[in-house]
Design a protein that fits this description.
The structure is a single chain. The chain is α/β, with parallel strands linked by helices. It contains 6 helices and 10 strands. The protein has a 6-stranded parallel β-sheet with strand order 2-1-7-8-9-10, with helices on both faces. A two-stranded antiparallel ribbon has the order 3-6. A two-stranded antiparallel ribbon has the order 4-5. Helix 4 links the parallel strand 7 and strand 8. It starts with 8 loop residues before the first strand and ends in a 6-residue tail after the last helix. About 3% of the residues have low confidence.
């Protein structure tokens, strides 16, 4: 089947914490090239919350990425770590509303690609869509890279039942930011997830080893309406 025979798949891309849409687009250039001439359109979304710069001993550290953004925080003073347990996800509702509006105004989307905090958000969006049939958030598959099960108590409701969206869950064996075990814990929240492990760390892998796995997973959705 040639690319001209295929429908165009639209994929919403949700960046990680301390990234933004433009930075994420640049970081996954090799991943996007895998789908060159394969009728996949990637749409990148900015998180609504600005992330304060890292403060070390009272000195603001200049970061590689300007305009760093996040989807929610663990505390009112805008701090976040995927390893931190907290009661409330500060700013989460604003992010959920933004995604709802994005699906209304820029959708439809066939799939969602999420990285790190963005992968965790993507899982929450899938659960939200599953339990809220009137939501504008509707998609048929997701690719979750370096995701983790949210440790925010307010998000526990999203994991009460298995999430049925088809997912490809990618995890790095040497990821020191989100250890593989945390990604495995998220995978257990889904029915029949496809799992791709790679030997690297905290990034979206796109070598010849991963390429056929990505293509095989995504191609199932070209003609599955």
């Amino acid at each position: 089947m040639t690319s001209t025979d295929l429908k165009t798949l639209r994929v919403l891309c949700i960046h990680g914490y301390r990234q933004n849409a433009e930075a994420f687009k640049g970081k996954i250039g090799s991943f996007r090239k895998i789908f060159k001439n394969k009728n996949v359109e990637f749409v990148f979304l900015n998180a609504p919350h600005e992330v304060p710069p890292i403060d070390t001993d009272g000195q603001n550290v200049t970061e590689e990425i300007p305009d760093q953004r996040g989807w929610w925080f663990c505390s009112e003073d805008k701090k976040f770590s995927g390893k931190t347990f907290c009661e409330k996800g500060f700013g989460f509702e604003e992010s959920l509303n933004l995604v709802e509006e994005t699906f209304k105004t820029q959708g439809p989307f066939d799939g969602v690609l999420g990285f790190s905090q963005g992968a965790t958000l993507t899982a929450l969006l899938a659960a939200h869509s599953q339990s809220n049939p009137n939501s504008s958030i509707k998609f048929r598959f997701a690719i979750l890279v370096a995701g983790f099960k949210s440790r925010c108590e307010a998000h526990a409701i999203y994991y009460k039942q298995k999430i049925t969206h088809p997912t490809l869950q990618v995890m790095g064996e040497t990821d020191n930011v989100i250890p593989r075990e945390m990604s495995e814990e998220l995978a257990e929240c889904f029915e029949n997830p496809t799992v791709l492990q790679h030997s690297g760390g905290h990034y979206v892998p796109a070598t010849g080893q991963q390429k056929p796995v990505y293509i095989e997973f995504v191609k199932k959705f070209y003609n599955d309406d």
